[in-house]
Amino acid sequence: MKVFIPMAGRGARLKPFTLKTPKPLINVAGRPIVSHLISQIALSINTNIEEIIYIVGDECYFDDKIIKLLEDISNQYNAKTKIYRQIEKLGTGHAIMCAKESLNGPAIIAYADTLIHGRLTISDEVDGLIWVKEVKDPSSYGVVRLNSKSNIIELVEKPETYISNKAVVGIYYFKDASILREELRPYLNQKLSPGEEYLLNFGIEKMIEKDYIFKSQIIENWMDCGTPKLIINSNSKMLTLLTPEPVGYKKEGSVEVIEPVFMGKNITISNSTIGPGVTINDNVKIKNSNISSSIIMENSKISNTELKNSLIGSNTIFDGKFKKIYLGDYSKLESNDDE
Fold first, then answer.
1. Which domains does the chain have, with CATH numbers?
2. pLDDT mean over 22-29
3. C-alpha Rg value of the chain to the nearest Å
4. Each residue of 111-134: b (16+ CB within 10 Å) or e?
5. Angle 131-239-283 (CA atoms, 0-180°, nearest 5)?
6. Which of 64, 132, 194, 215 is most buried, judged by most C-beta within 10 A?
7. pLDDT value at position 287?
8. pLDDT digits (tens, 9 = 90+) for 40-70
9. β-strands 268-274, 214-218: how paired?
10. How far is CA 183 from CA 153, 178, 197, 209, 222, in A?
11. In whole angstroms, how far apart are CA 107 and each of 59, 268, 310?
């Protein structure tokens, strides 16, 4: 099995947290988003992942350090790493076709901007699977239309009238990815009109028109990570689902930890209450604070505050009375700062 991870975007909705770190590598519940995604796939399928194909952007943003991190993730699953670059952002179909040399055999395509938790069951009796989540307002999503045999017959983006409540979560299985490649190849030779993109859905719909069988499968938990608010909510939910084991930290004075909480290495906490729903990454110092439902990135110092539903970037100093804040990397904000 091959796993394709398109991740060439710059995470514009998550700036300034994505100025240096691609969104899929932001740590949520103790691991990068893309690592959680691959972990769930690896735990679910009944075969080994032979190769993980990452489709990234230009070298200025996705540099050697980022590539090394991706290789390290692949190595956790004894999988080979293959890197392709999507320099022009021309849509999901274009992204996948940047890796056309690898599009063959059984494959999963998974977009690295969401978190999932639940089993992915693959059937040999179908040509493709699309994982979905039942939602209350389908008009905000791409959904699948099913026939009487529960086969997918159409993919509809943000339907104005009700078609189904099964929203596509961005994870797909193909029994033979070379068929998708051949359907997308002539499509990418067509000239785009202004504002248009080459879409992965086009290749899937062409396969369906030729009587390839696609089924939908409901994923138990699907969490969006597109904005700071959504990342914080997803972090809290993942912590509840994963129930991380208690970890060591340096304690000074009175400290209370209310699970679930994830802590990285070299954490110092003084006279504070932490949790629930908090992720604290490596080399963080916290004192005289109450923090819940928040993420603190690495190498930051937090003091004299009561934070909830907040996201604090890496290498940041924060001392203040704000109760909710999004503070980017390499920032400094102190209530008594006279500089």
1. 2-229 (3.90.550.10), 243-334 (2.160.10.10)
2. 90
3. 21
4. bbbbbbbbebebeeebbbbbbbbe
5. 125
6. 132
7. 95
8. 899 878 778 999 999 999 999 999 999 999 9
9. unpaired
10. 17, 9, 16, 11, 29
11. 26, 44, 37
